[in-house]
Amino acid sequence: MQRFEFLGRFARNRGALIGACLILVVALMAIFASVFFPTDPLRIVGLPELWPGEDPEFPLGTDSLGRDILSMIVHGARATLLIGLFASAVATIIGVGVGAIAGYFGGWVDEVAMRAAELFQTIPNLIFVLTIVVILGSTLTNIVIAIGIVSWTPIARMTRAEFLSLRDREFVQACRSMGMSDFRIIVSEILPNALPPVIVLSSLVVAGAILFESAVSFLGLGDPNVASWGRLVGDGRQLIRSSWYICAIPGIAIMITVLCLNLVGDGLNDALNPKLRDR
User: What is the pLDDT of residues 199-255, one digit of tens each?
Assistant: First the structure.
């Protein structure tokens, strides 16, 4: 019953519903990329710098090397979404773990965890990501790890705040009186009640991770063997005056995807936040 109520509240937010539908389209495009374009998207297939509509075989034109932009957009959706989702998962695992321990135990554990979070926040995120990628190597796995490492601090602070408000509630005290272990109380009792705002924040981290990946690929540190939207923007930056569409098309794809993810995050917040349910 609660599941249907959640879906109903989410569906009442038209912006979130539109965003979810567009994200679903992008996800389906990524899943079936090999069906639509079975060949390597980085393969040269035509004349360079064909404008959109100039050749019916290439609806979105070709880049400076003669690669099909539509094929790279479709295949790039897979890499972009995977990096966003897995980087958000890494950040959520780290952030929830640190925030739960800090909020539940408090004292010196809380102090150490929060000082560590502040230390991470003093370093500019993009520079931190670029440094990690340069050290570990330009692969998708390393990019995911780098983005996850720099994105966990807001989730940790949110989780800590939720745990601080829940750790002294009656149901937690009852669990302690029954002899339940701290680990079991954290995982099975407090964490499920603390998850709704964390889920909302994690959905926003996906959008931030996509922007980070685009920046890394734009600067030439992305995986050279994988087509991504950021890489396509970076490849076209030298021709932005003569063939600006090479940058504009993947840039629009990034903008729409990030905007839709933010709309979905707002919808989740409206549906999961009890203070906003009747808004």
Answer: 888 888 888 888 888 888 888 787 778 888 888 888 888 888 888 888 888 889 999
Q: What is the pTM of this model?
A: 0.84
The residue segments making up the domain with residue 173 are 2-276
Give the chain as a 3 state SS string: CHHHHHHHHHHCCHHHHHHHHHHHHHHHHHHCHHHHCCCCCCCECCCCCCCCCCECCECCCECCCCEEHHHHHHHHHHHHHHHHHHHHHHHHHHHHHHHHHHHHHCHHHHHHHHHHHHHHHHCCHHHHHHHHHHHHCCCHHHHHHHHHHHHCHHHHHHHHHHHHHHCCCHHHHHHHHCCCCHHHHHHHHHHHHHHHHHHHHHHHHHHHHHHHHHHHHHCCCCCCCCCCHHHHHHHHHHHCCCCCHHHHHHHHHHHHHHHHHHHHHHHHHHHHCHHHCCC
Number of domains in the chain: 1
Q: What is the CATH number of the domain that holds 155?
A: 1.10.3720.10
